Every structure is written in structure tokens, then in C-alpha cells.
Amino acid sequence: MASQWFINRVGAKSSGPFTSQKLKELASSGGVLASDMIRKEGVDKAVKAGKLKALFPRTSL
């Protein structure tokens, strides 16, 4: 079964579930911000979306 993700944005209701692919699409289109908290289904602790390199790859200057 594919991973399911939930997005928590300050001042908004939790949204999801989203597949990993959909989460990547949302991140690239601005639907997920680096400051949003996301969590994987079955995991209680959320992390900042910006910490996930798969969503927000670091670019070198």
C-alpha cells in the first residue's frame, strides 16, 4: 500500500490523505509550503515539509 500523507497548516484544518506523488505535485505548485507541517499515516509526529528533500530539494548557489 502506498504511503498516505496529511498536511497541517497554521490556521487551517488538516487536509489529506495524499499520496507521496500528489504531495510532491502540491509542493512544486505551491499547494504545500515549506512551513507546513506534514505527517505520514500511522505516525503521530508531524515535521516541517521543508525538511523533506524529496519535496523541497536544496539548491546550491
UniProtKB/TrEMBL annotation:
Recorded superkingdom: Bacteria
Domain GYF: start-end pairs: 5-55
Protein name in UniProt: DUF4339 domain-containing protein
Protein's organism: Singulisphaera sp. Ch08
